[in-house]
Recover the amino acids of this structure.
């Protein structure tokens, strides 16, 4: 394989239009004053997302902290005949199970519990794997990243259900639904993890491998001459 | 396997309209993009990321789906989506009333999230896409086309109407037990809107628009 990465070829691909821009001696260290712009769409271009790891860590840790109130505080309260029972995410799933609506229970469980937890675990794992510079299955890790990015927004479904119920069930004291503070934290978790997935740069997974391959290649060339 | 594209070659390709080489956005591998037949796509050699898909009549079809979508979007916002009948009372809900109800229920943050994801971003996507595709078709792209298209690309993930539809399904089943749920006129328009939005994103590869812009720049 004599293929190169764009960075090794002194090129920066634009994030939006994929135009390859020639940038000799790419310098993206913290004190570099140079900013590069795409020749086609004039957007600012970076060889790697700036401060990708620290931004992702910050967003992810905030999401993990908010995940606790999201699951322990009530997400909504259904008041029937003046009598209300606050529901958390998990108790809502159990209520659905009790009333025999298991497909709904499964859907809410997957969207509100399974996917967010999976997302938090995968992002933490990816960040750690980049931090420890492992060579372990880079392709599989990229696919994991792709799944996380794609599937994350579907967790919003529970928030939308609450919104629809709040707007539809407005019959005064007889029946009404109100959104709890847990819904707020849960929405924040979903949004923060979406931003976290967005700020993570999957190219960092491959950089360790590419950099070493380049060093080996240069070493072999030196040995030949 | 293609040879390493050297910088001189890259420079030469700059004057051409479509990309002959691309760096994978997920693993940065530089690779040649062969000419594609309709319906074919290029996957990254190393990580399998889909790099480019050649859709049939991409611009025309996307424009048709976007205009259809805009009409359906207007209808979907004019009439109630769902109504709930209980105790002789009827409560209607539209897309906007859902966001406003959360505001009145002292959840302004959730209200803003709903407003952005179900009303504003879908609207900007539809109107912006129509505007840009008409510009591309009539060859009247200007300095604002590229920033606008960049905005549309970065807000694409935040239009969540299809998720709202799933949420409506959940709400219908949940409420169906205790009260009468009436499907509003807009609900049918809404379902068709989701369909045209899906077809729109399946028929437009952003590269088709960028290639046109690059062509204009020369």
């Amino acid at each position: 394989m004599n293929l190169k990465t764009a960075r090794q070829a002194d090129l920066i691909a634009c994030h939006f239009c994929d135009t390859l821009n020639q940038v000799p001696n790419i310098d993206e260290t913290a004190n570099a004053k140079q900013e590069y712009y795409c020749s086609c769409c004039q957007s600012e271009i970076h060889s790697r997302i700036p401060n990708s790891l620290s931004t992702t860590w910050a967003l992810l840790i905030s999401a993990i902290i908010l995940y606790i109130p999201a699951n322990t505080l009530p997400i909504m309260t259904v008041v029937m005949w003046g009598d209300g029972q606050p529901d958390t995410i998990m108790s809502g799933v159990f209520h659905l199970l009790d009333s025999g609506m298991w497909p709904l229970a499964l859907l809410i469980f997957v969207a509100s519990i399974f996917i967010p937890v999976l997302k938090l675990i995968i992002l933490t794992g990816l960040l750690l794997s980049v931090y420890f510079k492992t060579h372990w299955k880079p392709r599989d890790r990229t696919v994991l990243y792709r799944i996380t990015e794609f599937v994350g927004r579907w967790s919003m479904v529970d928030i939308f259900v609450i919104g629809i119920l709040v707007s539809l069930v407005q019959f005064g004291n007889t029946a009404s639904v109100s959104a709890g503070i847990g819904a707020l934290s849960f929405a924040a978790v979903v949004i923060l993890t979406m931003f976290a997935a967005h700020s993570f740069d999957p190219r960092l997974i491959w950089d360790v491998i590419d950099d070493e391959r380049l060093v080996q290649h240069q070493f072999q060339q030196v040995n030949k001459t | 396997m293609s040879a390493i594209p050297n910088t001189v070659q890259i420079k030469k390709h700059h004057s051409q309209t479509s990309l002959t080489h691309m760096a994978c956005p997920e693993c940065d591998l530089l690779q040649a993009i062969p000419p594609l037949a309709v319906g074919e796509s290029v996957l990254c050699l190393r990580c399998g990321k889909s790099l480019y898909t050649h859709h049939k009549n991409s611009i025309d079809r996307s424009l048709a789906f976007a205009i259809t979508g805009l009409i359906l979007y207007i209808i979907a916002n004019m009439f109630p989506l769902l109504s709930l009948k209980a105790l002789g009372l009827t409560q209607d809900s539209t897309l906007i009333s859902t966001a406003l109800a959360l505001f009145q229920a002292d959840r302004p943050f959730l209200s803003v999230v709903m407003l952005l994801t179900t009303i504003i971003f879908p609207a900007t996507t539809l109107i912006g896409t129509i505007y840009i595709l008409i510009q591309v078709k009539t060859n009247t792209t200007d300095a604002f086309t590229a920033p606008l298209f960049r905005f549309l690309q970065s807000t694409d993930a935040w239009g969540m109407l299809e998720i709202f539809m799933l949420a409506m399904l959940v709400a219908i089943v949940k409420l169906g037990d205790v009260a009468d749920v009436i499907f509003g006129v807009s609900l049918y328009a809404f379902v068709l809107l989701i369909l045209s939005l899906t077809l729109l994103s399946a028929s437009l590869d952003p590269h088709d628009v960028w290639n046109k812009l690059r062509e204009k720049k020369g």
Q: What stands out?
A: Chain A touches chain B through 70 residues (CB under 8 Å). Residues 1-47 of chain A form one domain. The longest strand of chain A covers residues 76-80. The beta strands of chain A are 11-13, 20-22, 36-37, 44-45, 76-80, 83-87, 170-171, 175-179.
